[in-house]
Structures are given as C-alpha cells and as structure tokens.
Amino acid sequence: MTAPLHTSRLLGTECDPKRCGSDVLAFVGDGVFGLLVREYLVSCSNAHASEQHSRAVAMVRCEAQAEYMKRLLPHLTEEEEGVFRRGRNHHTSHSPRKATAEYHIATGLEALFGYLYLSGSMQRIRELFAYCVQENNLETEQ
What we know:
The protein has 6 helices and no strands. The protein is mainly alpha-helical.
C-alpha cells in the first residue's frame, strides 16, 4: 500500500516535517519563502525581471527576514514558536564564520516556513507571509 499524496504541496509526496532536522526545514523553507517573495513581487508590479530580482534579493536577505520574524512572533502558535526556535538555535559546521544574530533568526524563519509547507499548511503560510509584507509599499505598475 502506498502513502496517500499530500495535495497541499507541489509534489505531493508524503513527508513528516516532525522527523526533519531544523537544517532540512530551513533548506525547504528557503525555497518556499523565495517563491512567495517572487510571486508577491510579480503580482505587485510588472517591472522587468532584473528589477524584480533586485527587489527579491532585498526581501530574502537575512536582515529583512529577521525583521519579518519580529512581525510574525506575536502571531505564532506555541508549536510554530518551537519550530522557529529550533531553526534559530541550530548550529552546524557550515554556518558562515561571522554568522550574525540576524542570520540565525532568518534561519528560524526559513525553518518555520519549511515546516508549514511540509505540513501542507498553505493557508497558514499565506497568513504569515501577509504579516511579513504588510508594511511593504510597492507601487503597482500597470
């Protein structure tokens, strides 16, 4: 008997995020967050790809992600806070030599988004991402 497909994710294969290490969750969350940022930017503006890329890079930098995490913390459940803390506190031998506090907070944010994605919690991802971008003032170009 094969495991049922998880239809709330792109590939839909079975994966238990509770069995994933925080580094793996951050790895997945990095991609999820990057895709959210790109979709957000494209939906707000029809600027050229090079300009969209520059905006995306600014939004996924660890400094920006640390700022987003400040906005998210009051809205997290206990379980989500635990995932964030695990990601933030995870230290490996591949961390940048001068990893800042912002870097670790950004890793926690990515772990949170990876966990939610692998859990199939797309609506919760949308809710939290909305808090991240609520103060961005992108001009819509028509």
